[in-house]
Structure formats: C-alpha cells, structure tokens
Description:
The protein is mostly helical and about 280 residues long.
Amino acid sequence: MRRLILGSITRLDLVVWLLVMAFFCGSSLLSQGNLQLSFIGASGIIVEMLFIGLSIEIIIESIKHIKGIGTITGFITNGPEALCLIVGLIAGDILFAASTPLGSNFMNPILLITATIICKSTLQTLKTKPVYSIITMLSTATLAVSFFIIPESFFSYWLLLAVLVTVPLFFLRPDEGEEESDAMYDENARKWLIPAILLLLGAGYFLDPVVSFAAESSKAPKGVIGFLVLATLTSWPEFKSCLALLSRNKPLAAILNITISNITNIWLAAGGIGFYLLSQ
Length: 280
C-alpha cells in the first residue's frame, strides 16, 4: 500500500501543482489580490488534487481484477461533479450547478488524449472503438455547449434531448468482456476501498469552497476559474484513471471511463435541471 501511495504522485502532478500555484499567484499580482491568501488557496487546491488522485488509484487497484472496470470507474470518478452540482443547487444557481459537470465534458477528451501520449498508446487507443468514441464525445460536448446558449424556457426540451441521446449511447457501449481482467492485484488495497471512496467524496465536497476561496483571494475571473481550473480538477480523477488503465494495457476501459463519465455528466446536469424546474 505504501508503494501504491508513493507511486500515485508523478512528475505530471508536480507540474500541474506548479501551474496551479503560478496561475493563482500570478493572477493575484496582476489584479492586486491578496498574494498570501492566493498561495493558501492554491495550496488547498493542490491538496485536493492529491487526495482525489490517491483515492482513485486505490479504488482502481482494489477493483482492477473485475471485468467492466472502465464503466465502473466512469461512474466512480464523477463524485466531485455530483457534489459540486448539489452545492450549486443548494445555492439556487442552476447555471453554476450545471457548469461543472458540463464543463468537464470538454476536459475529459483532452485529458484522455494526454494520457495516451504519456502512456505511449495513442494509436492503439485511436483504433479501439473509434466510431463509438467519437460519436459519444462529440454528442455529449454538443449537449454541454447547447445548454449555455438556450434560454431558460427551453430547458425542458434540452432535458428531453439529453435523455434521448445519452441513454442509447450508454446501452450501446462496447462490451469490456473483450479485454482480460487483471489476475494480479494488491489484495491489501481491497480493505481500503470504502475509505478511498469516502476520501474521494470528501475531497469533492470541499473542492468548490477551496476553488472559490482561491478565486476570491486572487481576483481571477470566475469564468476563467470555472473553465480552466474547476473543470480540470473535477476531471482529474478521470485522468488518473486513464493513466492507470492505459498503463495496464486497457485502452477500451480507458475510453469507456471517459465516455461513461461524459454521459454521467449529462445525467447529473439533467437531474439538476429537472430538480430546478420542478422547484419553480
């Protein structure tokens, strides 16, 4: 378990942490924000990323012997988006509530491509169910964009369209039975499965307050924070999952991790919109 924990921190994590620190501190200097509080906020975001990545790696390790792992992780890694959605609904801001899961639909494909480059499996991944992958990613991204350009009176139509598009995509997903499950895995990690899930949910719960604190202290534009930081951070579990799956030669599982996550993001947004419409 110690080796697993230490192995979950990579050079890429260190690079991203430095970029997060530079973004908020740089914004604070340019916008005359509070540099010290910006540093604290950025540090909080780094801790969030560490906990999220660690919990996902433990979850993957504890269930990687199970067939269908790509679909399973596609659901598990949407914990932060779900919690941010709930926070937005409690605040009564439907646009903010839906922005996190829908914004992640843009970051997920980018992070998948990045993961394939890092794992040197780009061509292999591109050849794995390309039609399904392209259709699913494009349709879910289009649904995400369309939500922000339609008037509120069209929300119910968007909700119906989202269901009609994503439900068939979910049931038409490729069968992961084509890939062999891992016979070897760290059995010691299994007892950490529940704590890891709780850690992931806890990190997701505190993600929005931490980002909001950093944004207020650095005076960074809220829209930029949401698009570049919040969407990226909530997509970080998917990225870590893709790295873990691709390193184990599971390109189909990595693809399904992203496509199922995108579909789930649409369902999360649709659920939030439905709740909002019913409460009006």
